[in-house]
Specification:
By secondary structure, this protein is an alpha/beta fold. Helix content is 32%, strand content 20%. It folds into 5 domains: 280 residues, Rossmann fold (3-Layer(aba) Sandwich), CATH 3.40.50; 199 residues, Dimethylsulfoxide Reductase, domain 2, CATH 3.40.228.10; 139 residues, Beta Barrel (Barwin-like endoglucanases); 143 residues, no CATH class; 56 residues, Arc Repressor Mutant, subunit A. The strands form 9 sheets. It has a 7-stranded mixed beta sheet with strand order 5-4-18-17-16-6-7, with helices on both faces. Strands 28-31-32-30-35-34-33 form a 7-stranded antiparallel beta sheet. A 6-stranded mixed β-barrel has the order 23-27-24-26-25-29.
Length: 930
């Protein structure tokens, strides 16, 4: 019998409700929860395929299912019992504290933990250990938003809600691409545009993204010039009389000093620094101020912003400058208006609530305030909480690399992929005396450096809460038991703490600090910590959250949460006034120069999530972007002698990687875009010195904002050179689902044998699962390596088509399978000259009859003797609809854009499921009209 469990999606910060379908202890399906106010039943392509990540055949291959211990670095990890693992960790922490002090321990945790997990880790570090060396990967995405809110409004509290999208007259989207990064929020934007055709949408982004394609005004500013743009808009508002002097006088401070500073942001200066025309600057300022055509009253403006502002060495200033625009025009505290920071991870907000950053305490308390430290110490029953700020994320790994931090405990995050300057990160992981990785997935890059691996439960197996971007707390519920010996994260922390407390003299005599037997007990303690604070949730209890999600604040006596903040014009500062913060405009930390003339931009893909340990197990989610690609402007590629698909060296001051290049009209000349998902699990190879290449973050800089300590992951100066790697290998194979992920892991272990290699999945709904390897080298490798690769792709044994010329480094293998009166290509390997992949890939993936092409398959460089129908790039991952089918149908379409889009939906079903492909469909429709 099918069971239905209400829970929350584990991907982005939109916080969508899901209904998990399960049967006999197995998750069998997932649907959007129509009763959840965040998504009202909608799911994006990632959320809609969550059940596929829980397939038993996948779990058995990719999950960490038991505690493991390495006797020495580089040795194979061996299974151990939970009691042994917990005792080992407690004893190692105690020994480290005795010998080096508590600050020799560092805990690095994650915005994908539940709030109760987060709370337990925070209390463990600051209350039990006595160190503030705990930080979260939310430092990489949200700390500038935190610092910006606190500097201007006095508290880390987004003042708006999702309903404001429908009530805004102008949407100002800065440094965000919600069409891809927050798709269900983008569906609300599309709804708002349909309901109100007069809605103005401004998008500030160097790239012409799917979000920018919907905009009335796309401000394609130069990378890192955000402050000049925002100051220029404010200067225009002042000159044109579009500010709200009454609101400024009644509710703010610091206005005069800021006015003097923004005076230098003239239209000419903005043009010089940003590349934004004066007319566009003026239009953006007018729409933002809400005074178009002399409207009275002022029309509301809502800003939506994310990593483009945050991941900057000026991240706090960027956030504050945008908030200044709202304050100057009174665009805050009313429906449809306010500065709305979009949270990146599902529970980055929850981590902020419990104080899991190195400079914060529970319930938004300030670590530097002795009264706040005393309040937390009293709540926890400890003598004191340490006063000195702990190490933030990058600082923690710098300290480990320098030998100051001896023990690292890493939970639910993958710093060997996600942190900038991977050369430094890997030095830290190698130098640390003991590294603990607590994760659900065995194949994450960081796991290779672990001395102890602890298996954690994940989505569909856990109980607790998360908080989304609009301050809405939702329940997360378990639909099935955790597989193997995986435990909930809070339970692991609690069990280690109980073993550790008797080993710490300063804590041994205290009553047990971790008495929890379930997440509800932890929630209750967290709830009490918020009493009287800006995020007071003492009016909520577990039963209320069981009934429906609620927004904070929700203090005792208040039946419902609070949708909008600051409606009364009173802010969370000592004088209840918002603050204008003085700033000087600036640029990126690492500008381009003659040696490194190109600006690297990073960002997200539509259908993947972070390091892809979860989303990357679903073959259909690879369809939209099947392998790592560096996008460049066509003129830059021509100047460098690059054609689409050519391999190129991308080099910064910190490292180098090799990736295929592809021309894109989304970028200006001088820019390169490489998605942040490509770590060395997918984009690999080794340098000439044998050092493993570490994916995109081998290139990024650890430079960071001095206030928020958030690194500038968005920008780095690089150079690009064509990679002369004449020997190439390309292989694809359809494999059984129960085999494909182990084969992928084995192929990943071989990628270091090449200067360039990438390993990815392919497939679409109903086709099965495929595995692809692409590699490049200066010369042919040892034949044994080619044989190992062939064996992993089921290209050994009888019944193969085979060609071998070892002297010239040429190998060909193909396996055909009789089906439906034809011979279908099941697996193929081309080594030496792999140029024929252009026609062999569709032969395999489209299941064409390969019988007439048997001879051509074995001929190096052979052209297809007949035309092969190809699907083109996949547009709709949910229905597996590709470009060519859409283009063919559009050629026969008549009518306007809406009618053509509807016909695509009716006949091909694209755009009818999650809607993530709709912006691309709309672009194709517009092209057909032209």
């Amino acid at each position: 019998m099918t069971q239905h469990t209400r829970s929350t999606c584990p991907y982005c910060g939109v916080g969508c409700g899901v209904l998990i379908e399960s049967e006999a202890g197995r998750i069998t399906g997932v649907r959007g929860d129509p009763a959840h106010p965040a998504n009202l039943g909608r799911l994006c392509s990632k959320g809609a395929t969550l059940h596929l990540t829980a397939r038993p055949e996948v779990q058995e291959q990719v999950r960490l299912l038991q505690p493991l211990r390495r006797a020495a670095r580089g040795a194979a990890a061996q299974p151990i019992a939970w009691d042994t693992a917990l005792d080992t960790l407690a004893q190692r922490i105690a020994a480290t504290v005795r010998q080096h002090g508590p600050d020799a321990v560092g805990l690095y945790v994650s915005g994908q933990l539940l709030t109760e997990d987060y709370y337990a880790f925070n209390k463990f570090a600051k209350g039990l250990l006595g160190t503030n060396n705990i930080d979260t990967n939310s430092r990489l995405c949200m700390s500038s938003a935190v610092a910006g809110y606190k500097a201007t409004l006095g508290a880390d509290a987004p003042p708006a809600c999702y309903e404001d999208i429908a009530q805004a007259s102008t949407l100002f989207i800065a440094g965000a691409n919600p069409a891809w990064a927050h798709p269900i929020l983008f569906r609300r934007i599309e709804d708002a545009r349909r309901a109100n055709p007069a809605l103005k949408i401004i998008v500030c982004d160097p790239r012409r993204t799917d979000s920018a394609a919907l905009a009335d005004l796309h401000l394609a500013l130069r990378p890192g010039s955000d402050l000049w743009l925002l100051h220029g808009m404010l200067r225009c508002m002042v000159e044109q009389g579009w500010t709200d002097p009454a609101y400024i006088a009644a509710h703010t401070s610091g206005w005069t000093a800021l006015q003097a500073q923004v005076a230098q942001a003239t239209p000419e200066a903005v043009w010089q620094h940003c590349g934004i025309a004066p007319a566009d600057l003026l239009q953006a300022a007018r729409w933002f101020a809400g005074v178009e055509s002399g409207s009275d009253p002022r029309r509301p403006t809502l800003s939506l912003y994310c990593q483009g502002l945050n991941q900057s060495a000026r991240g706090t200033d960027n956030n504050a400058a945008l908030i200044h625009l709202h304050l100057a025009c009174g665009q805050i505290g009313k429906p449809g208006a306010g500065p709305f920071s979009l949270t990146g991870q599902p529970n980055a907000m929850g981590g902020r609530e419990v104080g899991a950053l190195a400079n914060q305490l529970s319930a938004h308390r300030n670590l530097a305030d002795p009264r706040h430290r005393a309040e937390v110490a009293a709540l926890w029953g400890v003598p004191e909480v340490p006063a000195a700020p702990g190490k933030a994320a990058v600082e923690m790994f710098e300290a480990a690399a320098e030998g100051h931090i001896k023990l690292l405990w890493i939970a639910c995050t993958n710093p060997a992929h996600s942190l900038p300057d991977q050369a430094l990160v890997r030095r830290a992981l190698q130098r640390a005396e003991f590294v603990v990785v607590q994760d659900a997935y065995a194949g994450v890059a960081t796991a290779r450096f672990a001395d102890l691996l602890l298996p954690a439960a994940t989505w569909g197996e856990k109980e607790g809460t998360v908080t989304n971007s609009e301050r809405r707390i939702s329940r997360v519920r378990a639909a099935v038991p955790a597989p193997g010996q995986a435990w909930a994260d809070w339970r692991i922390v609690t069990q280690v703490a109980r073993r550790l407390q008797p080993l710490l003299p300063q804590r041994a005599a205290l009553p047990g600090l971790f008495p929890y037997e379930g997440p509800e007990a932890i929630w209750n303690e967290h709830r009490e910590s918020t009493r009287g604070r800006d995020l007071d949730i003492t009016g909520l209890d577990w039963a209320l959250l069981e009934a429906a999600p609620r927004q904070w604040p929700c203090p005792t006596g208040q039946a419902e949460g609070t949708a909008r903040l600051y409606a009364d014009g009173r802010f969370a500062t000592a004088d209840a006034r918002a603050r204008f913060v003085p700033q000087q405009p600036g640029g990126v930390a690492e500008p381009t120069d003659a040696r490194y003339p190109l600006a690297l931009l990073t960002g997200r893909l539509r259908d993947q999530w972070h390091g892809m340990s979860r989303s990357g197990t679903v073959e259909s989610l690879w369809a939209h972007a099947g392998e790592p690609v560096a996008q460049m402007h066509a003129a830059d590629m021509a100047r460098l002698g690059l054609r689409d698909g050519d391999l190129a060296y991308l080099t910064s001051r910190r490292g180098s990687i090799v990736a295929p290049a592809r021309a894109s009209d989304e970028l200006a000349s001088g820019q390169v875009f490489l998605p942040m998902h490509w770590g060395d699990e997918v984009l690999g190879g080794a340098s000439s010195t044998g050092r493993r290449l570490a994916g995109v973050n081998a290139l990024t800089t650890a430079a960071r904002c001095p206030q928020s300590l958030q690194p500038e992951l968005k920008h780095a100066a690089i150079k690009v050179l064509k990679a002369e790697l004449p020997w190439s290998l390309w292989a694809q194979a359809w494999l059984p689902l129960a085999q494909v992920h182990r084969a992928r892991e084995a192929l990943q272990s071989l990628m270091d044998a090449f200067p360039f290699a990438s390993c990815s999945l392919f497939g679409r709904p109903g086709t099965g699962t495929g595995l692809q390897l692409r590699a490049g080298a200066h010369h042919a490798p040892d034949e044994a390596l080619v044989e190992r690769i062939a064996g992993l792709l089921d290209l050994q044994g009888a019944g193969l088509l085979s060609y071998r010329d070892a002297r010239r480094g040429q190998w060909r293998r193909a396996r055909l399978q009789d089906a439906d009166g034809a011979q279908r290509l099941q697996a193929v390997l081309l080594a030496g000259d792999a140029s024929a992949q252009a026609w062999i890939a569709p032969l395999l993936q489209e299941r064409h009859d390969a019988q007439p092409l048997r001879r051509a398959l074995l001929q190096p460089g052979a052209k297809a003797p007949q035309a092969l129908a190809t699907r083109g790039a996949t547009v709709c991952a949910c229905e597996g609809v590709a470009e060519n089918a859409i283009a063919d149908l559009l050629r026969s379409c008549t009518g306007d854009a809406a009618q053509r889009l509807q016909r695509l939906k009716n006949e091909l079903r694209c755009g009818t499921q999650c809607g993530s492909c709709v912006p691309q469909l709309q672009r194709m429709v517009q092209a057909s009209l032209a």
